[in-house]
Every structure is written in structure tokens, then in C-alpha cells.
Design a protein that fits this description.
Number of domains: 2
CATH topology of the largest domain: Jelly Rolls
Radius of gyration: 21 Å
Strand content: 15-25%
């Protein structure tokens, strides 16, 4: 079991250390090898706009990516491994991000946001960058030796998540990133311990997501779920009549409400409210925006109403939530 680190502008070079590296005997596991059907790392186009550092050990490959030019770019990924993304700095004038199974997002500023792409899912997007993006990618073998066997990590059906924040997961990701950037101080045992913690954190947040949105028989079809969820995301700040959502699913309001709850685990109005609060969390990360402005942006006429709704769903006020982001 070995660890390596490097800097390169060549995407493929980050998979195998150069021949002069003292740990050159490391070989990426089979699940991380490129082939004709999958891309083993997040692929950037044009490729020359990024600089990478990478490190690897049994069951996990980590790379930090720095965009070095203010040039529009695209990116994409699909491989038989889980992908966790920690965006330390990400702000764009234009663009969109897509994770298979979720609505597309055109969120402009997703600094300090996490994204999780389960194995086999598509991840792609584009940016006209406002700032030079910095992100860390964690490629995790679903059946590798890294995870605690008691977790049954390889048997879990993970759900995709786009632009979210979790303190425990974020802090663990930053510690692993520091090991990549400072290879001289790298401890194999410490890196492996952090990797184990990371898998536990992923299982935890996946379980929390399942509790919020269980799926049962008799719910909406896949195309109905995607169509309705995308519409709510696009109109999250608006008052959406039940009849409008039912029309998108081509159902009567009565049958739509019952099917929606079976699919999403909550009634349509509560789901809409939860998405508003999730959008508010994203906006609260931008300290240039006032809480009053955020309330108006997501459809609340008064700050007090927004504060009450935020507290009801999160257990804390917007101000306290913002302070806890530090």
C-alpha cells in the first residue's frame, strides 16, 4: 500500500506517478484504470487550463484541481467508483452542472459546497468562471479495502447529492486535501484513517437523505419525478399551484398528491418549502448577501417569515446557520 503526490497539467499523468518517483511501484487499482467506456478522472476541456496534484492509497484516489485561466470550460465524469467533490472556490458567470438522477443546476456560486456522484452516474457541466476554481476530487472504490467491513459499504445504494454542505464531511475532506498538498508530511496510517472516516460520513449523510425521502411503490414514474422536481427547482421562489404540478405529471391533483408523497416522502408543499430552505442555505454561504435580500430572493415577503420557516426546518435561525459555516 503506497501513497504518491504530483503536480501536472496533463490529465492522464495524475493516474500513474512518474518513473523517477521513489514510490513509482504504485499501480492504480483496476477500477480506476481508463477504458473505452469510462473516464477514470474528471475530464476537463480544454485540458490545459487545469493544474493537478494527486495522491492514492488502497481504495481511494484523491486529486486537487486548480483552474489556471479565465477561460470557459466543460467537464465530465463517469466511472465505476464513487466521486465526492469539495469545491473550495467556485463562482461562475454562466454555466450549469448535472448529476444523473437530479435536476440540472445553474447555481452561480457554489464555493464551500460538496457534491456526491455515486458509482456509474454521469457528472458533467460547464462554466464561464468568475473566479479561478479550486476543488478536490475523491475517487472511492465501492468495494475496496478502505471501508470498515461492518459498514457493508459496497452494498449500499447511495443517492446523488448536488451542492450541499455537511460540516463533518467537509472537515474530513480538507484534512485529506492537506495530505495531498504536503506529501512530505504524509502518513499512510493517518491517510487511511481519514479515508475510513470519510466512508462513515458518506454512509451517515446517505442515511439521513433516505429518512427525508423514502420511495415506495405506487408513486410517480421516474419521468414524472424528474419533471416535477426540475420545475420546482426552477420556480423555487414562486408560489406554485398544486394544479400546475399535477398537470406536469398528467394526473389529477388528488392522485398527484398521493403519488408525490409516496415518491418523495412528503407532500408537494412541504417538499417545495424544503427546497426553498436548501436554496437559502446555498445563498447564506455568500456573506455579501444580506438575510433580508436572501428572504426576498427565495420568495418570502418578510424576513421574519423567512426566519420562522428556516428555523422550523433546520432548528436554527439563518444568522446562526451562517455563523456555523465558519
Amino acid at each position: 500500500m503506497a501513497i504518491s503526490a504530483e503536480t501536472t497539467l496533463n490529465q492522464s499523468a495524475c493516474l500513474v506517478p512518474p518513473a523517477t518517483d521513489p514510490i513509482a511501484e504504485y499501480h492504480p487499482p483496476a477500477w480506476l484504470q481508463p477504458d473505452l467506456e469510462t473516464r477514470s478522472i474528471v475530464d476537463y476541456s480544454p485540458s490545459e487550463i487545469v493544474r493537478r496534484h494527486s495522491a492514492a492509497w488502497s481504495g481511494m484516489h484523491v486529486e486537487t484541481v486548480q483552474v489556471v485561466r479565465h477561460t470557459p470550460f466543460e467537464y465530465g465524469f463517469r466511472a465505476p467508483c464513487h466521486l465526492l467533490i469539495a469545491a473550495e472556490l467556485a463562482d461562475r458567470y454562466d454555466g450549469e452542472t448535472f448529476v444523473e438522477g437530479l435536476p440540472r443546476s445553474t447555481l452561480s456560486n457554489f464555493t464551500r459546497k460538496l457534491t456526491f456522484v455515486p458509482a456509474g452516474h454521469d457528472f458533467r457541466g460547464s462554466q464561464t468562471p468568475r473566479t479561478l476554481t479550486r476543488a478536490t476530487y475523491f475517487y472511492i472504490d465501492p468495494r475496496g479495502p478502505l471501508a470498515d467491513p461492518a459498514l457493508r459499504f459496497g452494498e449500499i445504494e447511495f443517492k446523488p447529492r448536488l451542492f450541499f454542505y455537511d460540516r463533518g464531511l467537509w472537515e474530513t475532506a480538507l484534512k485529506l486535501k492537506a495530505l495531498v498538498e504536503n506529501p512530505g508530511s504524509m502518513s499512510r496510517q493517518y491517510a487511511e484513517a481519514l479515508g475510513i472516516v470519510l466512508t462513515h460520513e458518506l454512509v451517515r449523510i446517505n442515511g439521513e437523505g433516505a429518512l427525508r425521502g423514502p420511495v415506495s411503490r405506487g408513486g410517480l414514474a421516474c419521468w414524472q419525478q424528474k419533471r416535477v422536481a426540475a420545475y420546482i427547482e426552477e420556480h423555487v421562489a414562486d408560489d406554485i399551484p398544486l394544479a400546475t404540478l399535477a398537470g406536469l405529471a398528467r394526473l389529477s391533483p388528488y392522485h398527484f398528491s398521493r403519488s408525490f408523497k409516496r415518491s418523495f416522502g412528503m407532500p408537494p408543499h412541504r417538499y417545495h418549502a424544503s427546497r426553498r430552505i436548501e436554496r437559502a442555505k446555498q445563498l447564506l454561504a455568500d456573506r455579501k448577501r444580506s438575510i433580508t435580500a436572501i428572504a426576498l430572493e427565495i420568495g418570502f415577503g418578510e424576513t421574519s417569515t423567512f426566519t420562522a420557516a428556516f428555523h422550523r426546518l433546520t432548528g436554527q435561525t439563518p444568522s446562526r446557520y451562517r455563523r456555523n459555516l465558519d
